[in-house]
Amino acid sequence: MCSLCGLLGEDHWTDMAASPEVFGDVGPSRTRRQERLYRVRIINRVLAHFGLRLNDWQGRSFVLRSATGKTELVDDLMAVWPAGERMIGRRLDPMDPALLAHLARSAARS
Amino acid sequence: MAGSLEKIPVNVVTGFLGSGKTTLLQRVLQTPEFADTAVLINELGEVGLDHHLLEEIDENILLLQNGCVCCTIRSDLKDAIRDLHSRRSRGLVPPFRRLVIETTGLADPTPILATIALEPVIHNHFRLGNVIVTVDALNALLLMARQPESLKQIAVADRIILTKTDLAALPQIEAVKTRLRRLNPSAPLIETGDKPVDPAFLLAHDLHDSSYLPNEVRRWQEVESHDGDTIVGGVRSQNHQDLHDTHRHDNRIAAFALTFDEPMDWTAFGIWLTMLLQSHGEDVLRVKGMLNVAGVGTPVVIHGVQHIVHPPVHMTRWPDEDRRSRIVFIVRDIAREEIERSLMAFNRVARDYKPQSHAA
User: What are the C-alpha distances in Å from B334 to residues A4, B115, B146, B294?
Assistant: First the structure.
């Protein structure tokens, strides 16, 4: 269940494959699993700055791990952020200048 | 689960006590087109509302686990809506086709929106429609200075109804309109006075009305042309009066439109917006925009109030030759540049992965 939006077992608004009527050109060409793996790759670039890492778990959930070995099973994207905040004890802010610098550096390396 | 078109639309009518909520509802519900509308009200106002589908509710608030104030489920409202729907299904009340909820004057409307959008049973049968705020031209400036709840009501509204314009002096009306446009430049501002209002424009013309969607999006685009120091409060205002008057609540609220030349990667956008809403959701009062999503030929419309993000809506064609993404934000204590820089950085991450992702 999404801790913020309270949705139980439903498609999240971020799921492209769940809305073929909206993303018609892209949705069918990218399976739900491919979309999940792609999401994990991008989100890990962000989480790396906070010492966190996300892995897909059987195509249904995700496992979030901290650098100190804490792990938590989360159901969807929206649940990653509060779980990550609990693990590292501070806010995961997408406007944090240090995070943006990290993203720019990692882009330059790739 | 019913599709969005089969769900019963819910309009929330908010505004301070005496601002004309009930009078507006009386006018609207008298029209045959909206006669089969059920109404839930929080308090019986000075003006009695005589309607055959009228129910009264109390206020009890339940906080969702891990949720914030705006994500509370109003247990009273939940029970009232579920009960109304149950009686409708059993034929005990007429099969109403729309629900209107009138809030108390002081209410923060976001828990009401959260209840409709997030409560598991309700959101299977109902969907959010336009949020309407009534603003009294005589008292608006005073209320906005003293009652931060009024600013929230205005910021989350889809329609702003300026009432009592027949009683207020013209300079006062203009001052109120300027303030309202700064707080929420993307919502149409309708002066009523004693003039009739178009009920369909208020209630029915929303993002789920595909024939109306292009008009709504065009209005958001127009925010861009006004996007300057005159409409933006607080964070980046250059208006000397505003800079000297920093105690005013609405100086903390800024409305602006951002445009992005590069197509937006939907996955990166979802990661970015969920992260932003988790960390700053209480200060992101409104997000709405038309995105050029990478790989998708037609525009994707997004729309959110605080933590509540509606499912994306598809537009059949671009309104003009411009293919840039445009997003309107109404935020509190967040600078435009911070949001712009952050979203661009996230989108660039996706660009790095593009060859693999499309090959996947």
Answer: 21, 26, 22, 27
A95–B276 C-beta distance less than 8 A: yes
SS3 of B91, please?
coil
CA-based R_g, chain A, Å? 15
Beta carbons within 8 Å of B146's beta carbon, 6+ residues apart: none
With contact defined as beta carbons under 8 Å apart, do B193 and B20 qualify? no
Q: What CATH number has the domain spanning B222-359? A: 3.30.1220.10
One-letter amino acid of B219: R
Model confidence pLDDT, tens digit, residues B158-192: 999 999 998 999 999 999 999 999 899 989 999 88
Q: What is the mean pLDDT of each run of 10 residues along chain B (360 residues)?
A: 74 89 85 87 58 60 51 75 91 89 83 87 92 94 87 93 92 94 91 80 85 82 52 37 46 88 93 93 91 90 88 86 93 94 94 53
The amino acid sitting at B243 is: L
Nearest residue in A to B358, CA atom: A30
Domain ranges of chain A: 43-109
Across the strands, what pairs with A61? A57
Q: Where are the domains of chain B?
A: 8-206, 222-359
CATH 3.40.50.720 fits B8-206, yes or no: no
pLDDT digits (tens, 9 = 90+) for B17-34: 888 888 888 888 888 888
- Sorted by sequence, the CB contacts under 8 Å of residue B49 that are 6+ apart come out as B22, B25, B26, B29, B39, B41
Nearest to A96 by CA among B161, B272, B105: B272
pTM score of the predicted model? 0.83
Q: Nearest 10 degrees: CA dihedral of B142, B145, B148, B154? A: 70
pLDDT tens profile B246-264: 345 567 888 999 999 999 9
Which pair of tokens denotes residue B231? 């409409």
3-state secondary structure of B220: helix
Does residue A57 contact residue A42 with C-beta atoms inside 8 Å? no
3-class secondary-structure state, position B223: helix
Residue with tokens 């330059």: A108
**B307 neighbourhood in chain A, CB within 8 Å:** 4-5
The C-alpha torsion from B272 through B278 and B280 to B282, rounded to 10°, is 130
User: What are the beta bridge partners of residue B332?
Assistant: B253
Q: Calculate the alpha carbon distances from B99 to A109, B39, B45, B269 in Å.
A: 54, 6, 19, 33
Cβ within 8 Å, pair A94-B349? no
Enter the ipTM. 0.87
- Which of chain B's residues have a Cβ under 8 Å away from the Cβ of A43? 271
* A64 interfacial to chain B (CB closer than 8 Å): no
